[in-house]
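Can't attach files on this board, so I'm pasting raw text. These are the components:
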Amino acid sequence: MDSALLLVVLLPAIGALVNGTRAFLWPLTPKNKTITNIFTLASTGLSALIATWIVLQSVGHPWQHTYFEWIPSGIGHVGSTIANFSVDFALRIDALSSTMLMIVTWIGFLIHVYATGYMSHEKGYTRFFTYLNLFMFMMLLLVLGANYIVMFVGWEGVGLCSYLLIGFYYDKNFAADAGKKAFITNRIGDFGFILGIFLIFSTFGTSDYAKVFALASAGGHAQYGAIATAICLLLFVGACGKSAQVPLYVWLPDAMAGPTPVSALIHAATMVTAGVYMVVRSNVLFRLSPDAMLVVAIVGAITAIFAASIGLVQNDIKKVLAYSTVSQLGYMFLAAGVGAFTAAIFHVMTHAFFKACLFLGAGSVIHGCGGEQDMRRMGGLRKYMPRTHWPMLIATIAIAGIPPLAGFFSKDEILANAFTHHKFIWILGVITAGMTAFYMFRLYFMTFHGTYRGGENGHGHHEHAHDPHESPFNMTGVLAILAVLAVIGGFVGLPAALGGAHPTWFQQWLSPVLLPIGGEHFEFHEAALSTEYILMLVSVAVAALGIFLAWRFYKRDPLWSTPKRLATSFAPIHRLLENKYWVDELYNATVIRGTVLFAMALWWFDRWVVDGIVNGVRHLTVFLFGHGSNLFDKYVVDGAVNGVASGARGGSMMFRRVQSGLVQNYALIMGGGIVLIALVYLFMKP
Amino acid sequence: MPSTAQYLMLSATLFAIGLVGVIARRNMIVVLMCIELMLNAVNINLVAFSHRLADLQGQVFTIFVITVAAGEAAVGLAIIIQLYRLRSTVNVDEVKTLHG
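---
Top answer:
Structure tokens for the assembled complex are below.
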């Protein structure tokens, strides 16, 4: 079974390798699409099938397998303790990773199928599926890794694939910029994440989930309470980047520059939920730190209502869905923050169903309208695209939170937990739910009802534009499957109040992951039946109100006079929302401009101070050791040498006269000398 | 029988004449002859002391000196003849190529 699990991970990688080689060799050939399809679909499909078999075999028996020791580095000091830093390449199957595995492989496979239709006219067809398969590989590493380091590899890998796919239309500036924005914003979060991993390692001496959580669970609040807060806040910074939470959410709306299947798979269903997965995976650590939990809940709640309010006024169909995704991710963190970890994963799952459906439906709409994304130029598509219309309607109802569709159960579980935990957060959640219902049905009515407005150009007269057309079956079939999942997916979390079990089946399924802390077992929230009913009633009522308003504004009145009147009478608020609270502008003016100015200052410093010093030293060196040593050489060294020479010359000029060559001179001197010696001898004798 | 001092005075006189001849004369042959004169002054000295000290060593030494002087005269004259053939002169002042 362990080699089968490795195969699950490696199959998409093989697909990516084969298609990547082919894309490299024939970058623009559209004729080889069949081979591309075979590899990409076979690898993800087989991977999904094997994964299902493994999950079914492993129900109730979590296991992990070490394939090889990946980073063996021997024994060393970590702080004051001696630890053995070694990281295994190990994969883990338990309730949590199984859930994510099923979501990733099957939704991934469905979106691959859809993309074979959606991308059929694109030039970089094979390149697209290379990236998509690579993404599957990395995402599987992320969810299956048995320690934080393997997870981090997947985490960075999906970030890379996200960047590559957002910038898929690399010849368009906005797509390339959006890719860079996503990548850089994620780096900020990843910095926090990796610091968190370091802190985990220095605290527990290992990065393996099982060992870390066993230690944390045994140590409890007394031993790890303080350090857990630091760890969790750092991990949450990472989650904020990857899962687009305030204040790092800005990349996700721009990420819609990528092809729509990418938005569905990466920026709605799987990658952006990695942050939620990581928080739930680390639930033992988070439960040790109520402060960090509160931060998570507050950030989640703020993100949820903030993004939902922006979504109210957007006109780009993908932008609405993008802000909706940010908002729903906020919901998931809200859930994790109030301790409803199972509800968070439950919402990840149901959200993956209906949001993938919505995105793919939006893709189908865009495909059918010839690339148009502005909802003001759509309308009446119900007639033209019935096979897209019905799944979209179902998914819209599901996300709005109308029972008995999937979104209702997960959202209700989150709100019920929020209510018992923190009333204010609950209120934010309820308002968000109302907004969600409103903007989703606004999208639905603007797109599928009324009359088609796409044929007119800006000056009001008709062009000979062709009518919108329905998408092929490999696209709408996927929509239908996802719509069915969006209907039935919620029943695994049927609450006790509606005839389910307590804890719900989904909670029971995930409960092995929620380890006891210091001997205290995890308690699933339980409220009085009456409270449960009232809460459900409130959330359904709020959703119904949102739907009614959307119907009243955009369906009953085809001229949309009410929203237009509201927009003019509350012009400042409308402008604020339409411009997304000017957050991008704010970041531009502060962070980006600050960074640029800082870089300019550094450049200036480099140019004038560092270079000045270097050049100064150079001049000084040239002067001292060039001219200086030249002078020294010329006058001191040469002077000494020449001095000796000319001294010898002068001396010899003097003494050469003695050697006259006249033998008689010599004889005279010799004789004189003898006489002198004789005289000295005679007269100076002592 | 002259006394030793008289011999020595003779010898000193001869030596002085020879020395002056070596220093002052320009003709090489004369210079060579004056050198012989100085040598013989020394010989007289040696013989005089040999007689005075009744020791034959001095006279034996004199015989050696006369022999060497003969060789010396032969070599010296040969050099002078060669020089004359080369330079057509026997004037000492004109032979000074070793000057500094």
